[in-house]
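Q: Please design a sequence for this.
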């Protein structure tokens, strides 16, 4: 959604053909930052983003600095499509931040790719964000009342994300010490968590600015940002989205998941704590708490979102998924010949189910790894094949067998319906579907792209009706208690609102601002800005000290716009997809 908050749950569902295969559940973003003197920070960031690609496939970007200038390069597409050796060579310096995006606020356009830039405290800020704010509209209204309708920065350049609103708030608060149009006396359920910021006269430093802006935010946010000298990271008081700190031999790393530390050889140090702001520079690592933690980590990270080789809150994700499968076998046993997974997300739970039940595990489905994002649009004939483009049954394994098919979740039911039909056509004698999470009943306001309630199959059907709808011989969901126990966390330290409707942070009370574009996706289409071809020279935008009176950074005279940040005066048209 643009500027604001997820669509009301009463929105009508869009028509979905029963032959369609639903797109997978999307998580908003992955963030990464590195401070490492003597290292090529942009290359480390590239590999870190590569490890986080599962968290967002619509856009990616990297900002780097050599201590004087900030360079940013971002575009629509996958990390491997956007960056090459020439691009990374131009992103010099020992300090960098990066981002991969899946849009849940703001349309899927180039203007909404991150990092976002903005002037703060005589420096330039490059900001990345994983999560979703629930009070974006209120914040945006305060920015507009304070600045007027003539917006500057990323908002003035067409961004419609909550990240751009945070960047605008940082600029205003650094200059003025506060946002004049904001009601600082308002009280909500989260107000007691936030600690008072130290008194200071503007202009404020970036850290002082952050300590005043962060208490204004509601919802889920894991932020990684930088100026020309310092790397910063902050996490909301509930710790909804993961964020970790790692150690390099000559520096420090922050990332959405511990697996991203592993890929660049960084050692895991600890999680960034809920309500914590850290600063990393030549003086070391400094920590300040801007809020008292009240943990509500997203349980769906354990179910599906995080990589299986990640650890969250001390718990191995793959171990949690194995335990979910084992609990599912205890809760919903059935006589069968073979346990198979819907790859790849259902594999750990399927192995756990097989081990607990004593039923053999086999590879009954093969996934085409390279389908899902393609430059080539399928013909109508191929489109009718649906799920066969992604999964292919191994007839020799499943023919004549009573199958238990384990998957992580059912959202709309289209994929499972097509899968059951395909397995029967391949000769399966019976198909018993087992889901390693409870029914998804409620939308997520904290950064997961679930459907509206009208589209969630479990809101309008019983388990038996869903079983009949997808054509399975039996259907069993894991209980909420079984899921929570498998996560290794206490129920009161997790957010399971999509399953229970019990939201730890108040959902938004206002919808999106009128006249702003909705999230739009065209899978498989990848466009470079300004019509640049594949052979176009990579370019970046050089940003130095900002012009605070104008409210936006200076652009170097030789800066180009292809694939990179561009000034309002040179913004090409027709770049949305």
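A: Design:
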């Amino acid at each position: 959604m643009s500027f604001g908050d997820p669509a009301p749950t009463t929105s009508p569902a869009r028509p979905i053909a029963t032959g369609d295969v639903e797109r997978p559940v999307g998580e908003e973003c992955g963030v990464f930052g590195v401070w490492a003197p003597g290292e090529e920070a942009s290359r480390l960031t590239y590999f870190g983003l590569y490890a986080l690609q599962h968290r967002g496939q619509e856009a990616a970007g990297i900002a780097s600095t050599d201590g004087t200038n900030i360079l940013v390069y971002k575009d629509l597409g996958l990390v491997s499509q956007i960056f090459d050796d020439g691009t990374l060579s131009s992103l010099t310096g020992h300090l960098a931040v990066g981002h991969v995006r899946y849009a849940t606020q703001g349309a899927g356009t180039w203007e909404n790719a991150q990092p976002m830039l903005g002037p703060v405290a005589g420096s330039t800020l490059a900001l990345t964000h994983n999560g979703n704010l629930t009070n974006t509209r209120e914040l945006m209204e305060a920015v507009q009342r304070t600045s007027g309708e003539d917006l500057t920065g990323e908002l003035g350049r067409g961004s419609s994300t909550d990240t751009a609103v945070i960047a605008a708030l940082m600029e205003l608060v650094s200059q003025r010490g506060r946002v004049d149009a904001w009601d600082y006396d308002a009280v909500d359920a989260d107000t007691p968590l936030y600690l008072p910021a130290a008194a200071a006269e503007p202009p404020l430093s970036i850290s002082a600015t952050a300590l005043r802006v962060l208490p204004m935010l509601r919802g889920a946010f894991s932020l990684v940002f930088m100026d020309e000298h310092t790397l910063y990271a902050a996490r909301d008081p509930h710790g909804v989205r993961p964020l970790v700190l790692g150690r390099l031999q000559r520096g420090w790393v922050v990332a959405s998941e511990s697996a991203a530390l592993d890929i660049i050889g960084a050692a895991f140090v600890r999680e960034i704590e809920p309500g914590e702001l850290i600063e990393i520079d030549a003086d070391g690592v400094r920590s300040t708490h801007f809020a008292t933690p009240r943990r509500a980590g997203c349980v769906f990270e354990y179910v599906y979102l995080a990589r299986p080789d990640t650890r969250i809150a001390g718990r191995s994700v793959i171990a949690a998924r194995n335990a979910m499968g084992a609990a599912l076998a205890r809760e919903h046993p059935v006589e069968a010949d073979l346990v198979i997974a819907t790859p790849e997300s259902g594999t750990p739970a399927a192995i756990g189910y097989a081990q607990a039940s004593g039923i053999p595990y086999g590879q009954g489905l093969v996934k085409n790894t390279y389908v899902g994002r393609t430059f080539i649009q399928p013909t109508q004939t191929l489109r009718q094949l649906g799920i066969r483009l992604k999964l292919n049954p191994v007839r020799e394994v499943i023919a004549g067998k009573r199958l238990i098919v384990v998957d992580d979740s059912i959202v709309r039911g289209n994929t499972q319906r097509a899968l059951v039909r395909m397995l029967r056509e391949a000769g399966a004698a019976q198909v018993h579907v087992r889901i390693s999470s409870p029914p998804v009943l409620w939308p997520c306001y904290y950064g997961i792209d679930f459907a509206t309630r009208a589209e969630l199959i479990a809101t309008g059907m019983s388990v038996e009706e869903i079983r009949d709808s997808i054509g399975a011989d039996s259907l069993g969901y894991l209980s909420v208690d079984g899921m929570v126990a498998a996560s290794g966390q206490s129920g009161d330290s997790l957010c399971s609102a999509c399953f229970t409707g019990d939201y730890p942070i108040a959902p938004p009370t206002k919808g999106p601002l009128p006249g702003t574009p909705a999230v739009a996706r065209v899978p498989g289409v990848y466009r470079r800005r300004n019509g640049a071809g594949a052979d176009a020279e990579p370019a970046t935008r050089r940003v130095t000290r900002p012009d605070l009176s104008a409210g936006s950074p200076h652009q170097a005279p030789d800066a180009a716009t292809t694939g990179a940040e561009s000034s309002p005066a040179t913004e090409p048209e027709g770049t949305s997809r």
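Q: Thanks. Anything notable?
A: The first helix runs from residue 41 to 51. The first strand starts at residue 29 and ends at 35.
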